[in-house]
Design a protein that fits this description.
Blueprint lengths: L3 H14 L4 H13 L1 H19 L8 H10 L14 H19 L2 H4 L5 E8 L7 E7 L4 E7 L8 E8 L6 E6 L5 E4 L10 E8 L12 E6 L3
Length: 225
């Protein structure tokens, strides 16, 4: 069973994403007022997602998007208001189009339940502002998606390797990472549980030759889900 702290860490991620709603959101906000550490956890998730949003390239939706809106609202083109004579309704139409465009820009994890959900933030182990990694999990496909945020570059003769470390156990390699773009890793073993530590080490090109970390641990963090 997940511990109480892991449960609240998971809720913090959902709250920062905006997927925690209704009574659960109200209760969580009350809990944050009583728990400064929980509020700080939410702030860390919000900062990570804000930086991800800044990397999104705006996309102009195709004309078919507006036609789909008309169809969904059961509207006929002949009764659509003219911009010059019905400015208020025209504005509403633009607002609907803009709202749908915004939805198209939101990462799939916000709009599709089967998409990866964030489970950890790996921060610099040196305590410096040298970037971080957002780790998302897709349990249906048993895979992890690691997204670098201002991650430091490494020399061509080195690689970054991801490790899962169970409490009191030995590190298990999960694969090599790309520092310039998100990396999706299909897991051979089961998904790491809450309480596992995820760590990224600097290894010789191609990965550790021993099956265990041999270089400096650059980033680390605990699984929240």
């Amino acid at each position: 069973m997940k511990s109480r702290s892991h449960y609240h860490a998971a809720l913090a991620a959902e709250y920062a994403l905006g997927t925690l709603r209704g009574a659960a959101r109200i209760q969580f906000e009350q809990k944050m007022q009583e728990d400064p550490e929980l509020a700080a956890e939410v702030a860390r998730w919000q900062e990570a997602f804000t930086q991800l949003d800044n990397q999104i390239t705006p996309v102009i939706p195709p004309a078919s998007v507006w036609k789909r809106i008309q169809h969904n609202l059961a509207l006929q083109p002949a009764i659509l208001p003219a911009p010059a004579t019905r400015p208020v309704r025209a504005y509403m139409g633009w607002a609907l189009a803009a709202g749908l465009a915004a939805l198209l820009l939101i990462p799939r994890l916000l709009v599709q339940p089967e998409a990866p959900m964030p489970v950890a933030i790996l921060a610099s182990s040196a305590g410096t502002q040298s970037g971080q990694w957002v780790v998302s999990a897709d349990r249906s496909t048993r895979s992890l998606l690691l997204t670098p945020i201002n991650a430091q570059n490494i020399a061509a003769d080195h690689s970054l390797e991801l490790w899962a470390i169970p409490p009191g156990g030995k590190p298990l390699s999960l694969g090599l990472l790309n520092t310039q773009q998100p990396t999706q890793l299909a897991l051979a073993a089961k998904m790491p549980d809450a309480g596992f530590t995820l760590a990224i080490s600097l290894e010789p090109h191609g990965g550790s030759p021993t099956g265990q970390p041999t270089g400096t641990v650059l980033y680390s963090g605990a699984m929240a889900l």
